[in-house]
Protein: red chlorophyll catabolite reductase
Organism: Noccaea caerulescens
Amino acid sequence: MAMIFCNTLYSSSPSLSPLTSFRTKPSRFSKKLRARVQFRSMEDHDDHLRLKFMEFPYVTATRKQLMVDLMSTLEDRLQSQLLPCNLPPEARSFKNPNGSAEASIHIRSGQKSSPIDFVIGSWIHCTIPNVVSLNITSISAFLNSSTKAPNFVVELIQSSPTSLVLILDLPHRKDLVLNPDYLKEYYQDTNLDSHRQSLLKLPEINPYVSPSLFVRSAFSPAASMLKIDVEEEGTLEEILRDHVSPAAKEVLGVWLERCAVEEEEKRVMGVEEKLELERRDKSFRKKSIEEDLDLQFPRLFGEEVSSRVIHAIKEAFGVL
Amino acid sequence: MAMIFCNTLYSSSPSLSPLTSFRTKPSRFSKKLRARVQFRSMEDHDDHLRLKFMEFPYVTATRKQLMVDLMSTLEDRLQSQLLPCNLPPEARSFKNPNGSAEASIHIRSGQKSSPIDFVIGSWIHCTIPNVVSLNITSISAFLNSSTKAPNFVVELIQSSPTSLVLILDLPHRKDLVLNPDYLKEYYQDTNLDSHRQSLLKLPEINPYVSPSLFVRSAFSPAASMLKIDVEEEGTLEEILRDHVSPAAKEVLGVWLERCAVEEEEKRVMGVEEKLELERRDKSFRKKSIEEDLDLQFPRLFGEEVSSRVIHAIKEAFGVL
């Protein structure tokens, strides 16, 4: 999630005081009734928090529609394979006391029998008056080591009404130089680069190079890492609706058809290969958290909230 | 060598007839005298062919000076570790019958005790009247599996007097996502990206994205893959002299100081790690030849010359 978060925030942004937590008071009901009420309350709370996530409240209608469409497609297609979100509520929706930074995170792990490790969606909003208004919306899907197929990521980072960074990719999980067949199967044969090429035909779109060398290494050579700069906000909406949205949906389609499937030939067979894949996945996840959340979350949400949220994310990522 | 050769040539270029070979006639001298004469003649021939390579005859004075400086630095610094060029003469200098395509290749393998596998320099010139005049000059240095340190490459590809593609890099030999320490040691700590960033400050320089996904994977995230477009040829000379040349020399300096050295901690210790490195190096070299020479050489030099030259290169690359 928010893998290039660190690259878009101003390093000079002021430190923000931590969020006041919103724990519920102890109940006075009987144990049984309390358990039933709690269960119902948890379900309601889960629905409430999912709706809160799906609101994408600080972005334009077109962008919200895109994120909702992508998340709904993912959840609908993988429904039977996904467990409910089990992040603690305080890591699912949180803000800092003055309301200048707010975020929502939605993680659903895959069933043990599924190749899905977890699906994660998030939005982060942060306003520092006269300095920056930052909105990041992001969806990623991570596979487990039963398959070596690529993951999926889409991320939109906007720090002004007329400028937006798009990351759209199926990040590789094997070294592409050592495994040219993998490059062929998932990138050449899927013609993944065509989306990048088509988007680059628009005069408002240019390549985006992340300042982080790790981020550059982690995305595939067919990744759409692009910066969209427009003169009028309406143009950005048009580009999102007519170009980015179809591209993102097609890339997700490729991922659902070709990667998020349990096909025998895609299974990692050797023990060594599986261990190597697990090491690589872990290294990627740890480094993402280290370069991204560890650096930025404390500045935005304060130490206490950050450490609670990052702990929950690390748990879901399997890198605690 | 010429790793992105395939990306700059016009696919519509006409097929060219093969080069007439220049084998010497059988001699009539005594066996001993013949051996001595042959040895002397071989030495002379070697000098002649090295000088021919170092001529870089079809490029501007500034560019020739840069290539000669880089090759001389490499050969001077590694002198005791390098064997003489043992490519067959017909693979060191060759052209097609009508003279529209000409090339020179210079390969020196490292001594067994050295971490250098081989150093390769080349220039390729090709003119198709009213279509294209292409000049590629390239120097690479490959390490063997006694070390995992990166290789070195500099390549200049010019298809018009006012436009040039530069590739300058220390291509990684380990998966950077799996090995973040490697990324730190050779790319972050060396500040390799600073050269790319400095060059990009010039308005005439923009990022270059190779159409080949393999090429994009093979270069490091700090590679200077840049396109220089100028209005007047003189400006290109200035940029080469004042900006590209110092950057290339500094990157070569980093490679000579930090990579082409036999330090115990850089040695690959485990048998498995060494085998993996060998597999990756081999995969890289095979794929480079496949995507590059196998595709383009027959069109330029004809089947016969190409197959002879490619055979000799494969031998030197250890991928026959």
Q: What stands out?
A: Strands of chain B lie at 93-95, 101-109, 116-128, 132-143, 152-160, 163-169, 205-207, 224-229. The CA atoms of residues 240 and 246 of chain B lie 9 Å apart.
